[in-house]
Amino acid sequence: MSDILIENYVQQLNDPETYTDVHAAVIDLVMSVRTISKDQLMVYLQKAILTVLLDSTEDSTIEEELRSSIDSTVKNQYININTLHSVLHSINVKLDVFGMEIAESRDMDTSTEILYSFINKKGTGAIQLSTKYTQNDIQLVKHVVDRIFAPEHVLQSSVTDAEGNILHRITYSVPYMSMIKHLRNGPEQLDDEDMPLMTKLSFDESELFLQDLELYGWLELYNDCFTLSTRGLVELKDFLIKTYGSYPDGTISTCFGCKDILTRGCACPNSSCNVRFHKDCKNLFRKSRNTSACPNSDCDADIEDFYSF
């Protein structure tokens, strides 16, 4: 009996004009955790739907079935990825007027895993509009982002091949102590009377500020190096492309497979080639082709020789 109730309710959720307690529960969750995997969100969505139905029924038999389903790990046949997409679409329609969105992206290391993040999508200075920080803090955030994406930092690594040629190697990771030193040095004081005077941070203050950015979900510490998190990449996408530009004219790399911005992955060893992949996307691409040649027709590199960054 409960299956009929669930099926009918899910059909209501497919209406883009519908906004229910389930929608409110989903947005509350994503706002609180900031980023969540598709699998985790699907589990939560099912429990939310079943709980809403449980609260609305007075039939003891249906109530017992729903309670059993809530406690079960078995996926309900009527609650699937299409249900999630419908719910998120309705939520995003409501959020659009505020310049907010629950956006889909891919995990940097396991690109087959879909993530959802609550982000600010306003194009006019996402940093300033989407944070809890002061004007001074905002300048420091930009200073941190600049350390990751500015050309002199992205292209600072190089190797020498067998013929003695120097080959540039991109990197978007900043060692822990290097980032603290960079932050302590601080951004240049802007020539603006409306801007407060920048003060230098101590070691402890710099460390706490970076930890706060990590806690907020913008930075992540990977192998003792700082880089922008998946949520940070999604939220700051427009800002990053506008400020630093996309390869080959800028420093922002996108995955050849899924087209998302990436800060960790694999890159063609040919310095003049702009092909980059998430590691999983590279493996999927390789399996789908009968050749290991770089997908760039003007490049003679082998995809198996791509280096990690």
TrEMBL record:
<comment type="subunit">
    <text>Component of the Smc5-Smc6 complex.</text>
</comment>
<dbReference type="InterPro" id="IPR014857">
    <property type="entry name" value="Nse1_RING_C4HC3-type"/>
</dbReference>
<dbReference type="GO" id="GO:0000724">
    <property type="term" value="P:double-strand break repair via homologous recombination"/>
</dbReference>
<keyword id="KW-0227">DNA damage</keyword>
<dbReference type="GO" id="GO:0005634">
    <property type="term" value="C:nucleus"/>
</dbReference>
<keyword id="KW-0233">DNA recombination</keyword>
<keyword id="KW-0479">Metal-binding</keyword>
<keyword id="KW-0863">Zinc-finger</keyword>
<dbReference type="InterPro" id="IPR011513">
    <property type="entry name" value="Nse1"/>
</dbReference>
<feature type="domain" description="Non-structural maintenance of chromosomes element 1 RING C4HC3-type">
    <location>
        <begin position="255"/>
        <end position="296"/>
    </location>
</feature>
<protein>
    <recommendedName>
        <fullName>Non-structural maintenance of chromosomes element 1 homolog</fullName>
        <ecNumber>2.3.2.27</ecNumber>
    </recommendedName>
</protein>
<dbReference type="InterPro" id="IPR013083">
    <property type="entry name" value="Znf_RING/FYVE/PHD"/>
</dbReference>
<keyword id="KW-0862">Zinc</keyword>
<dbReference type="InterPro" id="IPR036388">
    <property type="entry name" value="WH-like_DNA-bd_sf"/>
</dbReference>
<keyword id="KW-0539">Nucleus</keyword>
<dbReference type="GO" id="GO:0061630">
    <property type="term" value="F:ubiquitin protein ligase activity"/>
</dbReference>
<comment type="function">
    <text>Acts in a DNA repair pathway for removal of UV-induced DNA damage that is distinct from classical nucleotide excision repair and in repair of ionizing radiation damage. Functions in homologous recombination repair of DNA double strand breaks and in recovery of stalled replication forks.</text>
</comment>
<dbReference type="GO" id="GO:0008270">
    <property type="term" value="F:zinc ion binding"/>
</dbReference>
<keyword id="KW-0234">DNA repair</keyword>
<comment type="similarity">
    <text>Belongs to the NSE1 family.</text>
</comment>
<dbReference type="GO" id="GO:0030915">
    <property type="term" value="C:Smc5-Smc6 complex"/>
</dbReference>
<keyword id="KW-0833">Ubl conjugation pathway</keyword>
<dbReference type="Pfam" id="PF07574">
    <property type="entry name" value="SMC_Nse1"/>
</dbReference>
<keyword id="KW-0808">Transferase</keyword>
<dbReference type="Pfam" id="PF08746">
    <property type="entry name" value="zf-RING-like"/>
</dbReference>
